[in-house]
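2024-03-11 09:14:02 INFO queue: dequeued item Delta(7)-sterol-C5(6)-desaturase-like, len=271
2024-03-11 09:14:02 INFO validating residues
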Amino acid sequence: MDDYLNLFIEETSFYNRVVLGTFLPESWWGPLPHWFQGWLRNYIGGVLLYFISGFLWCFYIYRLKRNVYIPKDAIPSNRAMLLQIGVAMKAMPFYCALPSLSEYMIVNGWTKCFSRISDVGWLSYLIYMAVYLVIVEFGIYWMHRELHDIKPLYKYLHATHHIYNKQNTLSPFAGLAFHPLDGILQAVPHVVALFLLPVHFTTHIALLFIEAIWTANIHDCIHAKVWPVMGAGYHTIHHTTYRHNYGHYTIWMDWMFGTLRDPVEDEVKKM
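2024-03-11 09:14:37 INFO prediction written
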């Protein structure tokens, strides 16, 4: 068992060397506890991912494709985007604590994680992955919905994100502009799933960071119309009605629980 858990430590140590070794002298981070190295690695990676994806996304839709996807009067101001960046940066150190916590639990053998796909085989990996995503989808839907329905949670946590309630106040940078605890709560289903079924470690960590790219995508106000994906068209409705489209990657949970509102149908009604 110790040898098996050492695989996780070796893997996280490799990630630490790649990220921290690229940006900092080893004398700065080498003596730090392993868990703190992981947090620092996650923080650097999270910040880089947020800014690189956000700037590239905004440059493409607001400059290269100006007036193609977003009307000129619907483009958020630089001030609005800077405010979103400020909120996200204040929360980022706390966001990065969640993957650090999950890594700590994994390397100590508290979860059902496995290190190599060969440990279970590709078929089992794909089945576990599908069930994992269903658990995450279900958990995030209900966590998000309760952040609206439980008034103190909305007032003191989720309202921070919902000040962006019009098309010209939403941008890819709003994707992580949450109260720190709000952002953590909505990502908790990823960690809970680790205790319910076997999950591939690297896939779990990758999906936590893919969240940053996904949330940027669903706040750009561009409806890609890829069924059954819960894209920006659906999520923009959520920011304007507050009572629909709580789902994460797909529309299934909103469809099942009666909170789905279709942007295409909304456009037809307006016409």
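2024-03-11 09:14:37 INFO annotate: Residues 1-217 form one domain.
2024-03-11 09:14:38 INFO item closed
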